[in-house]
Design a protein that fits this description.
This protein is an alpha/beta fold. The protein has 12 helices and 15 strands.
């Protein structure tokens, strides 16, 4: 297959009947549709529950009232347009406002709904100066949008600027293109040269991939991941747990195993953020924990590396364990360094989707 064409209108998707397209117009008008011919080819249109369709094709449930446009209060940690510094050692660059497709469960859909706010990085020199001045920053995440939607020369400019800063040891690129459009990698030898040039033995480049379902792991995506690995990158995967996509132990366990097989071990499984339009994709915390634990039981130690977390306004809160009456959480990373490692024990609440839904805290254990 040659480089796939983008598809921006539902009426141009052969598997979407005209009547369904009419029903979905209000959804597509509010939350845009974007995919490409390659990714749409993965859909089994005879399966009404096809997970790839659920990832990319709008559904009427997206119009249900729920959530916020900035559920993790990212604006609170923005030090300049397009740059966040929430965790002491990590800076985040919103370097791109483009994606290879619009995930229906996107937690940053405000970037597409409110483009006039211009949260995207426009002053790279100012961002690099900030990072140089903050020597506690040892890793930088280049994301968006999708970090690999940047032209290779622009991505290289960012990476080269970061590599010139002595205390930045890790550069991460957040991307779903190995799933959405692996030809971005397969057809661009210049990208692989950039990886070879700047992913050094003591200063690696990481690609944080976003495979949500085993069906996304095709021979093309496997080849793209292998090319990045051979160029010297390190790959890890993160995914939200998503209703109707990967919310069973069988599917999530298969995803963990398939990722480990191709050298892209699981990193995070996120609870679906309470973002506008995302209720039908969200899985309650306690159900998600049960699914996650059973999925890990189907894997080797590589698959078990994943952590179930919430990207809460106060930090990454890991769902650690449960008892018959309690849920145990821990700050895996905290915005306030003194909270790192803090354990929070809450009374169970099966309808809770987010940490804020737990009304009764039994005990807080500080490190």
């Amino acid at each position: 297959m040659s480089y796939p064409k983008h598809v921006t209108r539902l009426q141009n998707v052969p598997g979407v009947p005209a009547e369904l397209e009419r029903q979905l117009r209000p959804v597509a008008d509010k939350f845009e549709f974007l995919s490409n011919e390659y990714y749409l080819s993965l859909i089994d249109w005879n399966d009404s529950n096809d997970p790839i369709s659920r990832i990319i094709i709008p559904c009427v449930e997206e119009l249900e009232e729920w959530g916020h446009l900035d559920p993790s209060d990212e604006s609170k940690y923005s030090v300049m347009p397009g740059m966040q510094h929430k965790y002491e050692s990590t800076a985040l660059l919103l370097a791109s406002d483009a994606c290879g497709g619009y995930c229906r469960f996107c937690f940053r859909k405000r970037l597409f709904l409110c483009p006039e706010q211009r949260e995207i990085l426009t002053d790279l020199d100012a961002a690099l100066a900030y990072i140089r001045e903050h020597r506690e920053i040892n890793n930088v995440l280049v994301t968006g949008g999708d970090g690999l939607m940047l032209p290779t020369d622009r991505l290289e400019k960012i990476i080269a600027g970061l590599r010139a800063i002595d205390h930045v040891r890790i550069i991460r690129v957040g991307t779903k293109l190995p799933a959405y459009n692996p030809f971005r990698i397969l057809d661009d030898p210049g990208l692989l040269e950039v990886v070879k040039r700047y992913s050094l033995p003591d200063r690696r480049i990481y690609f944080m991939t976003h495979f949500n379902h085993p069906k996304e792991i095709t021979r093309h995506s496997e080849a793209a991941c292998n090319m990045l690995l051979r160029a010297g990158a390190i790959l890890c995967n993160q995914t939200p747990m998503l209703r109707g996509i990967n919310d069973t132990p069988e599917v999530l366990g298969e995803l963990f195993n398939r990722l480990a097989f191709i050298g892209v071990p699981p990193y995070y499984v996120f609870l679906c953020r309470p973002t506008v339009g995302n209720l039908s994709f969200a899985v309650p915390v306690e159900e998600a924990h049960r699914v996650f634990q059973e999925a890990k039981s189907r894997c080797s130690g590589l698959g078990k590396r994943a952590r179930l977390t919430m990207s809460h306004t106060t930090g990454k809160i890991e769902v650690v364990a449960s008892t018959p009456t309690q849920m145990i959480f821990c700050y895996h990373r905290a915005a306030a360094p003194e909270q790192s490692g803090e354990v929070i024990i809450c009374k169970k609440h099966p309808e809770a989707y987010w940490f804020d839904d737990y009304e009764e805290i039994v005990e807080i254990v500080r490190p």
